Each structure stands twice: as structure tokens, then as C-alpha cells.
Amino acid sequence: MRSRYKTTGDDMIAVTIAGRWHLHSLIMHIAEARGGLGGAMRRVLVGLLGLVAAAPVMAEDRAEMITASNPPGIVIAMLNAGHDPELTTDRTGDPMIVSRGPKASLFVLFYGCNTETHDNCQSIRFQVAFDRAKPWTAQEALSLADQLTFLSVRLDDEGDPFLHWDLVLGDGVPVTTFVKNLRAFEESVTLAADIIHAEEKAELMRQQ
């Protein structure tokens, strides 16, 4: 039995068709009362019917958008992309997503949030950190950033590299665009890991 409170896709189509038919009948009635359907009235009819038809499409497109103001939507997109994300908060109270992997953890940090309510965020940052045995230099970090387009690199106080990928989401981006950026960041992290740990791997090879 269909719930009276749940609208399905078929319901939306039926409502749209019914609305268009009702609107058409109403305008035809007005036109007849005024002596016919002239060019101006035809343009009004076409415009109004177009708005009614576009409404469910616009709603559907909006549902497929990823925004920083909707962290659970990002969690779902990451789940579908094969991650194991956990929605939590950072030290300031803003949203934060953590996806822990076997070799590194991916953090999604949120920016441009309301300073009091910690919602309505505008942008996000993918972040992965590496722990090196020896500190990296600023020159090495700059060299890595030059090799990997769109990837930002910074060093903490101990010389460990942090990899960033920033996205300004604003009113939203399509899910496919979000996932493409996530995949691109993953690929960059994989390439960066080989460079970051190259010296340590070489040292291990010499010791064997």
C-alpha cells in the first residue's frame, strides 16, 4: 500500500500532467471569455506550461547536487565511491568527515561555515597526511606540488607533508563532478606517496 505521505516519481508525473491540463483549461476559459486565443495569450500559455513542466526536473537536478552545506550528502557520495566515511566535527565545531584506510586516513574539512551554528558551509578540503621518519624540506614539498596539478602540499612543524585538494561548492556541483575530484585526489595521493616515501624505501632496500 502506498503511503499517503510519500510521493513517487509516477505521482510527480501525474501531478505535473494534471497541473498542465488544469492550467491549459483555465487559460482557454479566460481566452474564450475575452474573444479567442490571440498571439499574446498563446505565449502566456506556452510560458506557464513550461514552468510547470520544468519544476520536477529542477527538483530532481537539485537532489543530485553536492553542497558543503549538506555534509550527509557528501557522506553518501563517498560511501557510493567505496569509502567508509564517518561524519563528525573538528575542534571548532564545524563538520568533518573521516574515512580511515589501511595506509592513510582521508579527511574532508569544511570551510566558510556559520561561526555560531556551524552550518551553511561553502567549501571543502580533501586532506591526507603522511608521517615521515625524516622531516621533509620546503623545497621538496614545492617540487611535489609542481609535479601534481591541483594538489597543494604543506609541512607541519615536524616536517611531515599534508596533501590538500580544495573545492568551492557554493550552490552545489553534480555528484559526478564531486566523484571525479575525489578520484583525482586519490590518484594524486597514490603518486605522491611513492615520492614521499621513496627515500625510506630505498634505505630499506639497502638494509636487506
User: Mean pLDDT, rounded to whole units?
Assistant: 78
* Portion in beta strands: 15-25%
Q: What's the overall geometry?
A: elongated
Poorly predicted regions are: 1-24, 51-62
Give the distance, in angstroms, between the N- and C-terminal Cα atoms.
68 Å
In the CATH scheme, what's the topology name of the largest domain? Yope Regulator, Chain: A
CATH architecture of the largest domain: 2-Layer Sandwich
Percent helix: 40-55%
Query: Which CATH class of the largest domain?
Result: Alpha Beta
**Category from helices, strands and their pairing:** alpha+beta
Number of domains: 2
Structural account:
The chain is α+β, with helices and mostly antiparallel strands and 208 residues long. The chain has 2 domains: 9-63; 71-207, Yope Regulator, Chain: A (2-Layer Sandwich), CATH 3.30.1460. 49% of the residues lie in helices and 20% in strands. Strand 2 (85-89) and strand 3 form a beta hairpin. Helix 1 (9-33) packs antiparallel against helix 2 (39-63). The chain starts with 8 loop residues before the first helix and ends with a helix. 16% of the residues are buried.
